[in-house]
Structures are given as structure tokens and as C-alpha cells.
Amino acid sequence: MQRCLLLFICLVVTACGGGSGSNSGGETIGLSERPANSECLAFEGSGEVQLTPIAPSLDFNSPLLMLPHPTETGIFYVVEQGGAIYRLDLATEGRTQLADLSEAYSLSTCGECGLLGMAFDPAFSTNGFVYLSFTENTSAGMTSFVARFESADNGQSLRRDGTGNLLRSNLVEQQQPFNNHNGGHIAFGPDGLLYVGLGDGGSANDPGNRAQSLSTWLGKILRLNPDGSPASNGIPGALPEIYAYGLRNPWRWSFDRETGDLWAGDVGQNRFEEISRINLGGNYGWRCYEGFERTSNSCGDSPSGPFIEPVTAYGRSDGVSVTGGYVYRGNNIPALQGDYLFSDFGSGTLWALTEQPDGGFARRTLLETGRNVASFAEDTAGELYLVTFSGLFRIDPVAVESELPQQLSDTGCVQASAPWQPADGLIPYTVIEPFWSDGADKTRYLALPDGTRITVDDSGDFDLPRGSVLVKNFLLGQSLIETRLFLHNADGSWSGYSYQWNEAGTDAELVDGSQDVDVGGQIWHYPSAGECSLCHTAAAGFSLGLETRQLNRDFTYPQTGVTANQLATLAGIGVLSEQPTPAQREQRLSRSTDDNAPITPRARSYLHANCSHCHRPGGTTQSAMDLRFTTPLSDTGACETPPGNGDLGRTGAQLLTPGDADNSLLYLRMISEREFRMPPISTLQEDTQGAQLVADWINQLDSCN
């Protein structure tokens, strides 16, 4: 290991040949030319299935649902959280707007609010009834509605009265005590009845024990007649609309078109996400159980009868918010026939559940999509689709299947005979403010396919061409322990993989799933492929550190020994499609550990690097905070804002209380127990220095202005 380490250190701190140059403005650049790279490229077809873009020429804003027209082939409806509903013709990629509820009603705008569900009446062809589920601001506060609307033109538009208002009949009206866990999915079952899913009312640990109470609709799946009257559910002592209970936040459920079974994804709290088969009268455990495990919550006078265990549950190494799917009954992928497909909004992993001879179910990964999967869709032929925040996709069989090499030395991203050294085609880089990684040091490299360039958007984020690979080495002490590859795949998705170095330091092996390993007395977490997507979000441009504010600093290039600005160097060797603008060359983050810099930019830079990939518009968190460095503090949504998902037992605490870190969850989350700590993924060690910086910054704030 020592021999490998010395060679590695030599590579990253000394000149190894080549020369530098200057750009058109006479500014020194660190490399004389762009290195050729034909070896370190993203692998294609690394899953059982692939995603085919649907209507790629169209953009949708936070689409949450797609469902087919009841009778017209190739016509789908796309539901946006903000209230718009589009009628989409897949053959022509043309769309028209069915309605925009935000123009008619005061829709709630929190992270789990808005337009959440849509269903067509089984007799739509004759009655034209369309059902919508949404949250609306009323005089009583935020309220969940399921309402029936009408279409007189086969789904081209919704009918209005003589004054121009939409014809609307409310079937379900439920006041929400908090702004999260609204559920909102609706669907008609094979029995012709309307099923409605509602979350437990929000906050943490279901403070009202509503999911177990049979006197409220919260935490339930309801079953109604199409006119909104209760169906014949008949659960003793329960409201007549209740079909099943003990649910935390059922997010997307469906009926198996062959058996009629109802499959549901139920979003967990801090530990487990669940998939369950829902039966009439079933109690699915929340808040008494999460996954298969008993919680520390008191169940009080919970209804008698057994709790029904989920079919499967997964933990935080695989995802943070389950998205229920469908049992596959199509013909295009015979190997999946009868399997239940589902995903996770955070990780984007696409899984299949296959029934085993003993009646249990085995879970396997089909594809790391790298996308925020909000919903599945099923067409009239039984083929399945994904609705993501970065587009609509059909799930298809792979044309060519390949696998990632088991040994790092075989990837083409390192020297085959000396894998502790990067391949010749890699470009090294560094960042101003690194993401906290349990105290590890990191070195970073960029590999681009020959003939491609990086586009920089208006916010300064790098848009890397497909086929690119990011390579990151992790060192504890002076020992290489992990190398991660982050691949921009041919279909536009991103996927991450970890390689664990052997004790001799001669090579690293691909990690299967996630692992916690004792490395020199410290437990080191090797993330699963799904975990990588939890941080590398679409909202943050996937590549995270590759943005102008992070790279706008000097770096000593090991190939030449020349110290030069990274933005100037990347532009000078033709990697960037355009020169950075003067504004981009002026803006940069601050290093959080630089005691000579003002505390505010240091703290905001820390939050930007460690938190803003999720906490920003379009991010994967339930919170509406925007912690990007460029967002004014008063606009972050953190200042003097009550928590929406628990206060860690600190009554009266806010997300950020100026002058009082001990009552600011932004700080308290950083020092909490592991399942409550932020950042929540792939860290086992508390960043005490970073937490103290954030605490000191909050304590010196006089206000949010």
C-alpha cells in the first residue's frame, strides 16, 4: 500500500510532463491541450431495461402523473403539480391544455401540495366525468379535495357554467393539520368504485395518531361510489368510507389488471419505505410500525386486530421516498411478466418484485435511472412508463446488455497496470468548498468523450455531454479506500458506482449494494448506486461540484506543475463550449474553513455545498427551503419558518431562528442522531467543525434581512 500511495501522491502534487499555455487574453492556463479520451466512457445498457424518452421535445413543470385516455390509443394526460393538465398525443408530440386549476382555485403550493391525482369515470365515454384530487387554500386552512368535473368533448376540455366557472362537485373534503403527507392519489378499481389515498395529516410520528384512528379519513385508503357516497366497506367502528388504514403517506398505488390486487407504496419517516398489498379492513401499522419494525411511538388505544406487514421494505441506503408502480402485464418484456415494478423519488432506482415459491417476494434492481421518479403510468396494452421531473419515458427491453467491470483497473478510467493513477485522458480538478465526507480527503477527475464540450448554463452549472465520467478518490489518513465513478449514460440519466480498494492497495473491486466497513478503526460507508442519486439530483444538475462558483479558483495541475485558474484552463483547452462570462469569473464560493473570510459567505458556502443539491426548487426534499448560495437569506424559506416534519422534540424551534442556533433546526439537524441528521446520506461521522460554523453564523444574525 505504501508504494501505491507514494506513486499516487507523486501524481497529484508534482509535474509529470507536458506544458502550459495561455488563453486569448494572455492569462496563464494549466494545460497546453485537451487530453484525448477514448477509454473512460459511460457504459451503455447496464440494466435489465432501458428508458425511451416520450415526447422529448416538450417540457413539463413538476409532472406528477400520466394516465391514458380511456378509449383513444396513444392519448395521455399529464398532470402537473402546479395545476395544469395537458392532453398529449404521443404520435405527434402535440399537446393541448385540458385545464389549469391554478387559474380557477387557490391551490396550495407547499412541497407535497397542489394537483396530485386524476381519474376517469369507468363510464367516461357516456357521462364525461373526470375526477381530480388537489389541495386548496380555504377559510379553514389547507384542505384536500376530491372533486368531479365534466367533459362534453371526450376529454378536450372541462365544462364550465354560464359565468365561466368550472362545473365542480366535491366528493371528499378533508382539512389538513399540516402541509405534508397529503397522499392524493385516486383511481377506480376493477369493481368500478373510486379509491382515494390520504396521508396521516403530516408532521412527524403522526402526533394525532390519526392513521390508527377509525374516526378520521387521514392515514387511510377510502373506497367510494362514483357519486362520492360510501361503498360497502363495513369495517366495524369505522367511518363508512374507510377501506384500509394505518398508512403514513400512500404515494401511488395501482390495481393488477389480471388479479385485481391493490399494490401501494407507503412513504416512510426516517428508516423504511414500504410496498404493501392492500386488503379491505387491513391495518398497515403506522404509527406503531415502520417497515417490519416496531417504532418507539405509543399506539394508545389502537384498534384490535393484527397489523399487516409490508410485502417488502427498504432502508435509507436505497432511497428516501417510495413511488408505487404496477404489476407488469405487457408483452414487450417477457422476463418481467407478473413482476411488480416500483421506484424511489430520491434515488430513482427502478426495482422489480418477483414472487417466490414460498409466497415471498425477491427484490432486484432493474435500472439506476438517476431521475426523480414521481409516478408510473400504464397504457391500454399493459406497457409501463415513468413520469419524472426530467421527462417522460417508456420502459423498454435493453438492446445491448453490458455490465460494469468488477475491477477498477478494467474500467479505462485508471492506468490498468497502476490503478492508483488516473488514465491519461482524465482532467483533474478541485472545488472551493467540498461536500463533507466523514473527514476523508478527495481527488477529482473529469473524463469527456472526444469531440464533445461542456455547456455552462446561466446559473453557472456545468452540463456534461453524454458518455462523460466523473472520478473521485477518497483517502482516510494517507490510504486510498474508495473510488467512485459517476456516469452520464446514453439515455441522459446519471448513475454512480463505488469501488472498494483492497488492503494491499493494488486494485479496487465494485461494491454490490451498500456496505459499512471498518477502515483503520473508522466505519466507512460505501454507498449503493441508488444512494448516489439521492445527492446528485436533477435539480442541481447532477454533477454538483462542477459549477463556476466552485471551480473559480487556482489549481496546480499535476501534468505540468503549473498553477492556473481552472475556468480559464478549461476554456483555454476547448473543454467549455463558451468562455465564462465576466460575471461568472467574478463569482465564487468561500472556503468554510477560511477563518480570514467573513462568516456569512463561509456558512452560506457550506450550506450550498452540503445541502442545496436537495434544498432548492425542484429538489427531492419535503422542505421548501432554498439553500443555494445566491438565494438571499430572506428568500430561502428557512427564516422564522415552523418545521413541517417534526421539531426533534424542541418545542417552538424553527428552521432558522436568527440569533438562536439552539432553536434552529438547520443547525440541530447537523448534530442529531444518524436517522435525523443532515445531510442524511452516506455519512456516519458528525461534521463538528461545519456544525459549529453554522451555529456561530446563526447566533450572530440579528434578522433574516
Give the low-confidence spans: 1-17
Number of strands: 42
* CATH classification, class level of the largest domain: Mainly Beta
Mean pLDDT: 91
CATH fold category name of the largest domain = Neuraminidase
Shape: globular
Structural overview:
This protein has 705 residues and is mainly beta. The chain has 3 domains: 1-46 and 402-587, no CATH class; 61-316 and 374-380, 6 Propeller (Neuraminidase); 589-705, no CATH class. Helices cover 10% and strands 31% of the residues. Strands 31-32-35-36-37-38 form a 6-stranded antiparallel β-sheet, sandwiched between helices. Helix 8 (599-610) crosses helix 10. The longest helix is centred in the first third of the chain and has 12 residues, at 2-13. The protein is globular. The model is unreliable at 1-17 (pLDDT under 50).
Please name the defining characteristics of this protein.
single chain; 705 residues; mainly beta; Neuraminidase; 3 domains; six-stranded antiparallel beta sheet; 10% helix
Task: Give the secondary structure arrangement, pairings included.
Elements: H1 2-13, E1 21-22, E2 28-29, E3 49-54, E4 63-68, E5 75-80, E6 84-89, E7 94-100, H2 101-104, E8 115-120, H3 124-127, E9 129-138, E10 141-150, E11 169-175, E12 186-188, E13 194-198, E14 220-224, E15 242-245, E16 250-255, E17 262-266, E18 273-278, E19 289-290, E20 293-294, E21 312-314, E22 322-327, E23 340-344, E24 349-355, E25 361-368, E26 373-378, E27 384-388, E28 391-397, E29 414-415, E30 418-422, E31 427-429, E32 441-447, E33 455-456, E34 462-463, E35 469-476, E36 479-488, E37 494-501, E38 508-510, E39 515-519, E40 522-526, H4 529-535, H5 548-551, E41 554-556, E42 563-565, H6 566-572, H7 582-586, H8 599-610, H9 665-668, H10 688-699
Antiparallel strand pairs: 1-2, 3-28, 4-5, 5-6, 6-7, 8-9, 9-10, 10-11, 12-13, 13-14, 14-15, 16-17, 17-18, 18-21, 19-20, 22-23, 23-24, 24-25, 26-27, 27-28, 29-30, 31-32, 32-35, 33-34, 35-36, 36-37, 37-38, 39-40, 41-42
